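Q: May I have one protein plus its fold?
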Amino acid sequence: MAPTYRRLRSCLVSVRSWVRRRAGQLARFGAVGIAGIVVNLAVFNLLRWGPLSPDSEVAGDDDRVVTAKIIATMVSILFAWWAHRGWTFRGGRKHRPSRELVLFGLVNLAALVLEAATVAVSHHGLGLTSLLADNAASLLGIGLGTVARYIGYSMFVFDPEPDAASDERTR
């Protein structure tokens, strides 16, 4: 049992040091994420109460909630591109801007699929069709998308923070 405890403790220490090295970047990512959630939910609700409301005839009969979710997510993606490029991952460029934009788009496409699928399963699959249920599913989807985005941005789009990269090189 002692070797298992030591391995677990070592793993926790590694995670803790990883978080410490990236604390600034994680805080900026979180701040942009919170602002992105506000943008996402504001657009989603404006669409659900406005042109894509249940009484509206825009965009068909059943898919309006998913359409609203996709539009809201796209708007929040544009906001996030601007904020992450200029603040969260500033100075951490791996690629030419055009390639970076394509990779950013692909990571966000994967996150968009997670978000829209969460709303679709809740609304259409489980029959939870109230505005509250749609928002709860939307928040769950945003959470899943956020985890996918951080991993994707860190692995494929941007370099790690310069001080974090130099720390890893000196080991």
